[in-house]
């Protein structure tokens, strides 16, 4: 595939092989010999990704929304517009739009665009076999030899950490893929309950493993109900794990509460101690909105944050606008139970 020599040179990773029953922190925490350098725009904010040594855009392009356009050319153009305007963090997932999101992103990243971005995708598979199958499919769709970051998708059930870390589980496949140079960093995501995230961290610690990244809901309503911001972010920061924020708008449900405007919501997310705020961008207008949020961003004061939280407190009760926490509507893995082991 194109750019094989560049990618291998830019992403060489020294990884210590797993020993004994534990995988060892070095299985994931080792820095690459040379972090990739990417073009940056004065209109964008850039931040360190945990302790990986990588520098990425503080706004990330959500992968689900770039597979929804009727015409693939529209998706490809939108992705390239985002990159040209300074967004370097690309989000995706094996199951988004039946694989269409990865296919379109792979097409968009041709013609020199691949070396301008930090590419992330996610795997549903909980077993070694399922993870490997999905990884090979994602590599093909994305038209690359190596994916910068692969995350275990939707760790939303209390038993998910046990599945991932079990003998023959997905973590074995991820570590092997990293040793083989197919992926560079390992993380996990989830949107249901902070207790599950904390259990994933605890399980990793028990096995001597360190996650490079963790993805979670961070928005103006999260602070009031099952708060990832309050419960999980402090743990991630203590461990040097890069925090990826999502569900800023809750697929627009939070905006429909009429308690907050889009730019305010993005500024709130950017004010939190996160590396990236991943947001769905499905049109040039929404892209303009994301760029404007970055250009006008100044960290909110404690008074401003308190005002926003006061404004959203009543609407946030019982998670009625955070449907990803309270319903199965956003649970993509529920549609693919065979991959859960």
From TrEMBL:
Q: What class of enzyme is it?
A: oxidoreductase
- Could you tell me which residues belong to the region Disordered? 22-41
This entry's Enzyme Commission designation comes to 1.1.1.-
Task: Give the Low complexity compositional bias ranges.
Answer: 22-36
**Which keywords appear in this protein's UniProt record, sorted alphabetically?**
Oxidoreductase
Instruction: Provide the NADP-dependent oxidoreductase domain boundaries.
Output: 59-251
Please, which domain of life does this record's source organism belong to?
Bacteria
CDD domains for the chain:
AKR_unchar
GO molecular function terms noted in the UniProt entry: oxidoreductase activity
Which Pfam families did the record assign? Aldo_ket_red (PF00248)
Q: What is this protein called?
A: Aldo/keto reductase
Q: Which organism is it from?
A: Edaphobacter paludis
Question: What is the phylogenetic placement of the source species in the record?
Answer: Bacteria, Pseudomonadati, Acidobacteriota, Terriglobia, Terriglobales
């Amino acid at each position: 595939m194109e750019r094989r020599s560049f990618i291998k040179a830019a992403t060489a990773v020294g990884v210590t092989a797993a020993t004994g029953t534990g995988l060892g922190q070095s299985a994931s925490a080792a820095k690459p010999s040379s972090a990739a350098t990417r073009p940056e725009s004065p209109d964008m904010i850039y931040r360190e990704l945990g302790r990986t040594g990588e520098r990425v855009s503080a706004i990330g392009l959500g992968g689900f929304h770039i597979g929804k356009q009727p015409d693939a050319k529209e998706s490809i153009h939108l992705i390239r517009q985002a990159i040209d305007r300074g967004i370097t963090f690309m989000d995706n997932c094996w199951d988004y739009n039946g694989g269409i999101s990865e296919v379109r992103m792979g097409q968009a990243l041709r013609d020199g665009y691949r070396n301008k971005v930090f590419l992330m995708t996610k795997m549903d598979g909980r077993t070694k076999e399922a993870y490997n199958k999905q990884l090979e499919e994602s590599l093909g769709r994305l038209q690359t030899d190596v994916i910068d970051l692969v995350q275990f998708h939707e760790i939303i059930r209390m038993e998910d950490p046990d599945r991932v870390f079990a003998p023959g589980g997905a973590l074995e496949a991820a570590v092997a893929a990293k040793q083989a140079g197919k992926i560079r960093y390992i993380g996990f995501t989830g949107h249901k309950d902070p207790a599950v995230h904390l259990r994933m961290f605890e399980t990793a610690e028990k096995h001597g493993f360190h996650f490079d990244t963790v993805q979670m809901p961070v928005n103006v309503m999260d602070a009031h109900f099952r708060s990832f911001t309050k419960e999980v972010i402090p743990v991630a920061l203590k461990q040097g794990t890069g925090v990826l924020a999502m569900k800023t708008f809750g697929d627009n449900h939070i905006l429909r509460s009429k308690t907050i405007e889009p730019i305010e919501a993005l500024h709130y997310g950017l004010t939190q101690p996160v590396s990236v705020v991943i947001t769905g961008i499905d049109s040039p207008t929404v892209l303009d909105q994301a760029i404007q949020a970055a250009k006008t961003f100044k960290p909110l004061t404690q008074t401003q944050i308190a005002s926003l939280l006061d404004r959203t407190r009543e609407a946030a009760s019982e998670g009625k606008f955070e449907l990803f926490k309270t319903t199965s509507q956003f649970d993509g893995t529920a549609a693919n139970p065979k991959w859960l082991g």
